[in-house]
């Protein structure tokens, strides 16, 4: 009888030890059996690769207001999505989308702590402001160039009205409009700081060096930074809501399809900024 009890006790002990050993061992593998976790695991690379998805989704305007933002045909001083920028953050009076500005202020404070002053030299520009820039350059170029060359020369660094990201309130030019400023000295330090840190606040340099990326359109602009959580949505909406029929109302607008203004320029941004 005693022998039987001891035998049964030993048998149950072996069974229990075996059971716990098995469940403990298999635990790490079980994590991914949860459908949510499996999904998160599968998306891990995509999530960490996308700036927009690392931030809470902002409130977006409905399509009819969004079309006006995309084309620059609205008054940013009266638009509830926009706010004026404080004098300490800019070199002249200007507006940005509220969420863009909020994140810029966080980035500004972090840069200041590290000894860098970030000043916005251009923020939101509406259709008429972009038209003034475009037509001033057009009237100069057309004196000495044929029309295609005149437009292409402007498009090295400036957008056709209705196709500019500066309409959106998400994009800004910081500290200088010369790549040479950012190539040495203080400018280079500022640029290196932005390259290292801007993405933490949702900002991305959309016009990178075309020699080292496969993007098209404007030349490199080390000064132009975009708030991706909003601008990636706006770019997607541009594809859905805007056609060449809306790219009009300024000199030489009829050249837009020939120049691929939408495909090559609006969509010609660095791949990491989507
Ligand atoms: Zn710019």
Task: Describe, in plain words, how this protein is organized in 3D.
With 274 residues, the protein is α+β, with helices and mostly antiparallel strands. It folds into two domains: 2-46; 53-273, 2-Layer Sandwich (Muramoyl-pentapeptide Carboxypeptidase, domain 2). The chain is 46% helix and 7% strand. It contains nine helices and six strands. It has helices at 2-30, 35-49, 63-71, 98-113, 127-141, 147-154, 185-197, 228-241, 261-266; strands at 82-84, 95-97, 120-122, 171-174, 203-205, 224-227. The strands form two sheets. It has a four-stranded antiparallel β-sheet. The N and C termini lie far apart (76 Å). The structure holds zinc ion (ZN). Zinc ion is lined by residues 122, 166, 171, 173, 224.
Write the layout of secondary structure elements.
Elements: H1 2-30, H2 35-49, H3 63-71, E1 82-84, E2 95-97, H4 98-113, E3 120-122, H5 127-141, H6 147-154, E4 171-174, H7 185-197, E5 203-205, E6 224-227, H8 228-241, H9 261-266
Q: The CATH topology of the largest domain, please?
A: Muramoyl-pentapeptide Carboxypeptidase, domain 2
Class per helix and strand makeup: alpha+beta
The residue fraction in helices comes out at 40-55%
Query: Quick one: CATH class of the largest domain?
Result: Alpha Beta
Contiguous low-pLDDT stretches (5 residues minimum) are 16-48
Overall CATH architecture of the largest domain: 2-Layer Sandwich
Our measurement of the CA-to-CA distance between the termini, rounded to an integer number of angstroms, reads 76 Å
Q: What oligomeric state best describes the polypeptide chains here?
A: single chain
How many helices? The count is: 9
Order of SSEs: HHHEEHEHHEHEEHH
- Please summarize the sheet with the most strands: 4 strands, antiparallel
| Radius of gyration of CA atoms, rounded to a whole number | 27 Å
What is the average of the pLDDT values? 88
**Mass-distribution shape:** globular
What ions, cofactors and ligands are bound? zinc ion
Q: Hey, roughly how much beta strand do the residues contain? A: 5-15%
């Amino acid at each position: 009888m005693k022998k039987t009890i001891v035998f049964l006790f030993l048998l149950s002990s072996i069974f229990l030890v075996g059971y716990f050993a098995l469940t403990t061992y298999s635990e790490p593998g079980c994590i991914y059996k949860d459908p949510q976790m499996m999904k998160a695991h599968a998306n891990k690379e995509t999530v960490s690769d996308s700036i927009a998805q690392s931030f809470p989704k902002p409130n977006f305007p409905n399509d009819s207001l969004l079309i006006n933002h995309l084309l620059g045909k609205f008054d940013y001083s009266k638009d509830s999505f926009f706010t004026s920028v404080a004098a300490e953050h800019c070199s002249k009076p200007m507006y940005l989308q509220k969420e863009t500005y909020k994140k810029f202020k966080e980035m500004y404070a972090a840069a200041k702590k590290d000894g860098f002053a970030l000043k916005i030299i251009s923020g939101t520009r509406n259709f008429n402001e972009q038209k003034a820039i475009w037509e001033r350059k057009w009237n100069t170029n057309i004196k000495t160039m044929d029309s295609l060359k005149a437009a292409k020369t402007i498009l090295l660094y400036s957008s056709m009205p209705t196709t500019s990201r500066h309409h959106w309130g998400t994009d800004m030019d910081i500290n200088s409009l010369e790549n040479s400023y950012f190539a040495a000295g203080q400018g280079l330090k500022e640029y290196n700081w932005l390259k290292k840190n801007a993405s933490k606040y949702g900002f991305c340099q959309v016009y990178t060096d075309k020699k080292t990326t496969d993007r098209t359109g404007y030349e490199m602009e080390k000064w132009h930074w975009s708030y991706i959580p909003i601008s990636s949505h706006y770019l997607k909406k541009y594809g859905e809501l805007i056609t060449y029929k809306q790219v009009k109302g300024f000199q030489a607008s009829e050249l837009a399809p020939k120049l691929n203004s939408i495909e090559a320029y609006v969509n010609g941004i660095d791949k990491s900024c989507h």
